[in-house]
Model the fold of this input.
Amino acid sequence: MRVTACRKLGVIVLVLPLFFFLLMTGQARAATHTVSPGDTLWKISIRYGTTVNRLMEANNLRGTTIYPGQRLYIPGKIEVSRGAGPVSAADFDLLARIITAEADNQDYRTKVAVGAVVLNRVKSPLFPNTIRGVIYHVDEGGRYQFEPVLNGWINRPASESAKKAAQDALRGVDPTGGALYFWESWVRNKFLNSRPVAVVLGNFTFTY
Done:
């Protein structure tokens, strides 16, 4: 009886630190999703505000094939710093739509760069601190910061390549190295043309 009690106590002593560690890291209360017919990793990532790559990593998946009834661990939402909080499905869709509207005819790297500029603005004290706030920002002179908001192109559905570019931008990929502005290189604008150039990609010039 004493041996059994000691063994039980030993198990408790070993398990408790692990439990509290998991609790602190969020694993003990981790969200899960049971795959339904018609589900894809992409749809699930949008629903929970994460990415396909993070879902694959969290569930040790080697490919994107999933099956009805399969239970998936849902990793925490992506953080975007400076008060932006976790990225919601709506914000992710909006980021992908601005990439589509601005750069759908550009190469993939340029698409990622456009998404990175939005996120760089979120992090900058010079601009609103949310994805939605940045994209719909109107300056003191009444000027829209993104033309697709003015002409309505922002309302077009996001392309698949733009969605992937948004994922990469949210993961920290930034081909511009921190740029806050971009425009079509042929445009002449005193303010924009006076800023230090970060990089030229596709039809766009990116500046700090």
